[in-house]
Each structure stands twice: as C-alpha cells, then as structure tokens.
Amino acid sequence: MIENEIAKLIFDAGLKVHKALGPGLLESAYEECMFYELKKLAIKVEKQKALPLIYEEVKLDVGYRIDLFVENKVIIEIKSVEALNDLHLAQLLTYLKLSNCKLGLLINFNTVLFKNGVRRVVNGL
Prior knowledge:
This protein is α+β, with helices and mostly antiparallel strands and 125 residues long. It has three helices and seven strands, in the order H-H-E-E-E-E-E-H-E-E. It is 38% helix and 28% strand. A hairpin with a 3-residue loop joins strand 4 and strand 5. The mean pLDDT is 95.
C-alpha cells in the first residue's frame, strides 16, 4: 500500500472518530480511538512508538514518541488544540526526517469541521 492510500484510510478513520466524539476531548482519547479504528482495518499500526535520534554513530534515546505509526510509512501526530501552529508542523517534519518517512498527517480534533484540522506534511528527503 502506498502512502496516499494509507492517508485516505487514516482520514476516513479520523472522520469517523470526529463524528462520534466531536471536539473538546484530550489528545489521548482521540489517539486511542484512532488506534482502535485503524486496527479494525487490519493494517499495521503502532502507538507511542519510540523514535531515537541518531547523531553520527551515536544512538540517543531522547524521548521522542510518534503518536501513531501506520504501515511503517505514515506518521500521525494528534492534537486537540485551539489552532495548529508552526511548532506543530516542525515537530512532525522532524519526526519524518528522523524516521526517513515521506508522509505525515497532523490531525487537530479540536475543530468543528474535521477536514479543517488535517494537514499533510511531506518530507522532501
């Protein structure tokens, strides 16, 4: 499955969760529901996956965690904030670079319309 196909499945799962729960909950609640919905699709999904920083030949475990990692190809960063900002985008882009992934989805569930809270972030590698 390619990244865009995975992203479509993720968007549809997020839309389902948002329709059921609406805005205003904690990020952890949305993360658990997204994990559940993606697992039901029988695709590989990991939550709170550790992401080490490798500098030259030194591997540093500095506490980076990917919210959801789908099919070892797409990173999902979940937020429940008033508005996404540049720091949120930078965080996801850093995760993409550290993991050598091409695509990430920054999803803010604290929106009236789900589609307004979804940002695609592409790593130019």
